[in-house]
Amino acid sequence: MQTRPVPGTDLQLSVLALGGWLTIGGAVADAESMRMLRSAVDGGINFVDLADIYADGAAERVVGRFLREHGDATLVVSSKVFWPTSTDPADRGLSRRHIHASIDRSLQHLGRSHLDLYFCHREDPTVSLAETVQAMGDLVAAGKVRAWGTSCWRPATLQRAHRLAAELGVAPPRIEQPQYSLLRRTPELEVIPCCRQLGMAVVAFSPMAGGVLTGKYLDGVPAGSRGATSRWLDEYRGADSERAVRAFVALCREHALAPAVVALAWVMQQPGLTAAIQGASSEAQLRSNLAAATLVLPPALQQALGWLFPCRRSPWWRRALRKVFGRR
After folding, report:
1. pTM for the whole thing?
2. Could you give the C-alpha distances from 283 to 33, 34, 131, 211, in angstroms and in order?
3. CATH homologous superfamily for 3-325?
4. Measured on CA atoms in the order 126, 128, 129, 135, is the torsion positive or negative?
5. Which of 52, 97, 22 is nearest to 280 (CA)?
6. Where are the alpha helices (DSSP H) in 143-209?
7. Are 92 and 83 in contact (CB under 8 A)?
């Protein structure tokens, strides 16, 4: 599988990654999670994306068990810090205290002395950005993190973070992880161009729009699916989205291609993208998705997808921040 570099580091990421949100250690049983991880590595995936909040730490523990049993030192493992993992009011955000406490807990779960990548899971308006940049830079200097990154940060904040890192003499963020798919192309407007200017890698999460682009929600919400257990997918729903997804599924059938594979391949082939994180919920699904890493979309199909899914702005990140801080 093709790999792409994280600028400013010696890290190389496979263009297709495996994510642990709502799957590894959570909706997917441990035994199946272990099989998925083995199939991912065998299929050329070298990047597993986690967070301390995923399955209340179980995702990290399952991957830690996999690393102990298989000893795959080539696997690039990431985690994230921001969201609360307990009822303690201090156990959230991007303060120095929380960052240092969270990295130690994640490393304990994984059974490792360091993380390859460590992401600030969101922006934190309640903490000085200088404090966050210093704390993350200190982790790199201490060898606990090979490189740090961000997720869903605005371009202005990324630019400030780089300026502060230079002033403080610490490592800047090297990678951004936005929510990016055919149904959410907003990062193309500012985030991806900003990352290219700053020399940052870009790794997309939810490239299949939480499964919406597979077409599985067109005729109702299957029991036990992500849509049945979370309101997170509501942002993808609506008459316009449904019409576009129906047309997308039909278009994929015309080309004898699986919608999930096309959605993943489209993201991986966009300018400025380093990798796409798939959230497979079974070994069979993961094996099917691996085809996206080698699929070259025909120009006519690329053009049709551009017409079906135009780029639109969305204030979704403001809603996410209000959930935690009750402010805009």
Report:
1. 0.91
2. 8, 9, 41, 16
3. NADP-dependent oxidoreductase domain (3.20.20.100)
4. negative
5. 22
6. 155-168, 191-198
7. yes
Torsion of CA 182, 187, 188, 190, to 10 degrees: 160
Nearest-angstrom CA–CA distance, 291 and 46: 16
Name the catalytic one among 54, 118, 217, 236.
54
Retrieve residue 319's tokens: 């809603």
180 is catalytic: no
Measured CA to CA in angstroms, residue 38 lies from 31, 65, 67, 76, 222 at distances of: 11, 12, 10, 14, 28
C-alpha distance from residue 308 to each of 28, 246, 248 (Å):
33, 10, 7
Going from the first residue of the chain to its last (328 residues), give the mean pLDDT of each consecutive group of 10, the final group possibly shorter: 97 97 85 94 97 95 94 90 93 97 97 97 97 98 98 98 98 98 96 98 96 88 58 76 94 95 97 95 94 94 93 56 45
- Tokens in use for 185? 């192309």
For 13, the enclosing helix (H) or strand (E) is strand 12-14
Tokens linked to 42: 């065998």
